[in-house]
Amino acid sequence: MMPAEMLERGRRVLRMERDALSEVERRLGDEFARAVSMISASPGRVIVAGVGKSGLVGRKIAATLTSTGTPATFLHPVESVHGDLGIVGPDDVVILISKSGESTELLALLEHLKLFGVRTLSITADTRSTLARLSDVALDAWVSEEACPHDLAPTTSTTSALALGDALAVVLLEEKGFRREDFARLHPGGALGRKLLTRVQDLMLTEALPVVSPDATMREAIVML
Fold first, then answer.
1. What is the value of pTM for the model shown?
2. What is each CA distance from 15 to 5, 11, 22, 37, 121, in whole angstroms?
3. 102 and 130 Cβ atoms separated by less than 8 Å
4. Could you read off the pLDDT tens digit of each residue along the chain, which spans 225 residues?
5. For residue 20, with 0-12 CB atoms within 10 Å meaning exposed, 13-18 middle and 19 or more buried, which class applies?
6. How far is CA 4 from CA 11, 141, 216, in A?
7. For residue 102, with 0-12 CB atoms within 10 Å meaning exposed, 13-18 middle and 19 or more buried, which class applies?
8. How far apart are CA 145 and CA 128, in angstroms?
9. In the 3-class helix/strand/coil scheme, how is the chain assigned residue by residue?
10. How many angstroms separate the Cα of 192 from the Cα of each of 116, 186, 195, 197?
């Protein structure tokens, strides 16, 4: 493959993902507002679940929610039915991510969540799927095809699901009045923490200051420095 062809194929993938996001934006409707309201009104946490690539997207969504003022954690669907369901409380909201909406592991988890009376939100590419129909709220992450030339590897679908998660996190941030100071409090480490938290008073000298009188000579000032 020649460099020019590599470049064009890379651009094709980016175009497909851009177009997928435009379609997700077009399909965004009242269900999104319902999802935000449901999470915002919940006194519990957000639990995010998914398998495979959807699980990786779910981990990122949970991390973004947590860092922007909505406590969240990731729950692996397989481990959930082997004891990890213990982390789910009656006041929690569970986000279930599956492109097909027919994931056996997620449907098994959903069945148990229903028994607990937990509210559920699905992100799926098929709003007619079992997962979407049985969830309290279903967000539409439909894509026409994956960027993979075989239409198999999750690419455009995971981008769409991830973007919907970001949209939820940001709107919840605004809904809750989450401020820069709150963000700084949750990000004390690294360059971001230093940028947000460091004040002049943390760095300035307050003792043994190099002071000279207004009528001092330049030589005296240089010696003091």
1. 0.84
2. 15, 6, 11, 33, 29
3. yes
4. 899 999 999 999 999 999 999 999 999 999 999 999 999 999 999 999 999 999 999 999 999 999 999 999 999 999 998 899 999 999 999 999 999 999 999 999 999 999 999 999 999 999 999 999 999 999 999 999 999 999 999 999 999 999 999 999 999 999 999 887 777 777 776 666 667 767 778 778 788 788 898 999 999 888 888
5. buried
6. 11, 32, 68
7. middle
8. 17
9. CCHHHHHHHHHHHHHHHHHHHHHHHHHCCHHHHHHHHHHHCCCCCEEEEECCHHHHHHHHHHHHHHHCCCCEEECCHHHHCCCHHHHCCCCCEEEEECCCCCCHHHHHHHHHHHHHCCEEEEEECCCCCHHHHHCCEEEECCCCCCCCCCCCCCCHHHHHHHHHHHHHHHHHHHHCCCCHHHHHHHCCCHHHHHHHHCCHHHHCCCCCCCCCCCCCCHHHHHHHC
10. 40, 10, 5, 8
- Give the residue carrying structure tokens 């919840």: 172
